Amino acid sequence: MATNFRLPGKIKSFLLKVAIGKSGAIREAIESSAFTVHAGLHSDFDSVGHVVNLYLPFPLLESIGDLDEQENLAEDIKAGLNACARAIPNEYIFAVILEAFDDDNPDCVAAQRIIKGKRPIPESTVWKPGYVRLFISHRDTHKVHAAQFAKELERYGVSSFVSHDCIEALTDWPDEIRSALFSMDALLVFLTDDFQASWWTDQEVGVAIGRQVPVIPLKLQSKNPYGMLMSIQAMKGNLAEIQKIAGPVFERLATDFSDFDRLRKGAIEAFANSTSFNDSIFAMSNLLPRVSKLDPADVQRIVSAFAENSQLHGCIVVRRDLPAYMKRLTNTKYTVQGDRLVKVPFA
Questions:
Q1: Quick one: pLDDT at residue 1?
Q2: Contact status, residue 157 vs residue 230, Cβ threshold 8 Å
Q3: What is the pTM assigned to this prediction?
Q4: Of 76 and 59, which is predicted with more confidence?
């Protein structure tokens, strides 16, 4: 009976059709995936439903977000497939399931690639978990400045990829750069006078523009933005005071970045990972006030971090201000008891 189904044989062409005109996560998920179809797994009166498994490289799957965000993306792809399948009577897509590509999984090995010859993106381990991912495109002559800038941005919940600083010895560096490019949230251009002399930097900018992630040109010397960068408003900075630009760059990132949840998570992670009282005060005063809502996972992260991190529960400013902050965002009263942030039960 399965051989009589028409829809499974159309899945590849329909997936490509869904990707046309799309940007961001949907197009990347489709173009970078391999797929299998489990035909006829569900029936609904006189109709039969099929299940499509999309296998994505882990960094790409991770960049989509948590399980809820992955399910939302899968629902969008399913809706697109069913729109394409309207002309096929009595068949529909029951579910689209996103999974990480695993070389040890026979289903993945046997899966059909959407675009033949497209290599899977290798997993990147350079990003700090939960932080916003910023790729800093720079010339090797300015790697020290880029590394200094990246370190300062960590205080804002931003994890930066600086190729000459992040890639370990003996690593396949083109693959590592490619992995970071296809899992970044945004790209910062260290626009120096020698920037255009490198093929790599131009290609990095091209990937970011093609993926339609935010691109921030940072003019650091006399050279002006060129090519497709000309249409993007540039910021100005000074290599001699590069660390002072971190704040304005974060402000620009917060303006350009459409995924508020990623910024929220990054701010909370920076608070949780404070390594000094100064970091704790900075996060309490400058980062958490930007967060206007907390989900249950955020609340648990803050409560557990306060208990586990002595730079938080030992900081007088955090002990003073955090209970009021939590009450404002959760409508629940909290108090500090020793090294714990405790919910106050209703009287």
A1: 39
A2: no
A3: 0.65
A4: 76
